[in-house]
Automatic annotation (TrEMBL):
Its main location: membrane. InterPro entries: AAA+_ATPase (IPR003593), ABC_transporter-like_ATP-bd (IPR003439), MetN_ABC_transporter-like (IPR050086), P-loop_NTPase (IPR027417). This is Phosphonate C-P lyase system protein PhnL. Belongs to the ABC transporter superfamily. It is found in: Cell membrane. One of its GO terms (molecular function) is ATP hydrolysis activity. Keywords: ATP-binding, Cell membrane, Lyase, Membrane, Nucleotide-binding, Transport. The lineage of its organism: Bacteria, Bacillati, Bacillota, Bacilli, Bacillales. It holds the Pfam family ABC_tran. GO terms for cellular component: plasma membrane. PROSITE patterns: ABC_TRANSPORTER_2 (PS50893). It is a peripheral membrane protein.
Amino acid sequence: MENILTVESLSKTFRLHSVNKEIRAINKISFVVKEGEFVGITGKSGSGKSTILKCIYRTYLPESGDIWYNSKKFGLINLREATEREMIYLRKHEIGYVSQFLNALPRITAREIVKQAILEMGHNDKYAEEETEKILTHFELDPQLWDSYVATFSGGEKLRLNIARAMVKRPRLLLLDEPTASLDDESKEKVRVLMEQLVREGTTMLGIFHDMLFMQNLCDVEYRMLDGEIIKYSEKNPFTKH
């Protein structure tokens, strides 16, 4: 399998101006993700896990290192140096991101959020509507809420909707930042089913999880972090060892 993502010597520092202090979030991180793999990043809170994902998605701009992504449209591209226009295209068509939080306009409905994501991929309105209803049903979001503003949703409902919006696009690379943190066991299982389906269909996943039980028999590779550095690499269903 070819590498879809190669991270080389990636570093990111945050400056706290109020106390005139710098904090090194990640320090010369290097790893690879092969096409079709499910890679997990583990470690204590504050070890730098989320910073890696946000650098890949370019929410954060690292000060050094390279992030080589094998794009379907652009070929091999360094995400650290990509233009804003290139990043907008990749976020719409190739790279998905799921976090614990749903960022959406206040006057947009659940149905519109998911449908818009599908339409961005170039599908027609009929297909987008059918797929929207299918995935909202899968996550057991009450049909009476589909045309309600997401501001009225509970935290768990917003999280399920956030996951649905990302997964329905079937991205080439899906970044997962603690996507099941506040879900009950039944909802977690529904997320897991879709993850397994997407992997079978060719989506590559890179995720952060604290729930090791959830990750059993799902993840191919684990990178464990401590104080901004990778301290251990495991493969062949690593999460069954914890």
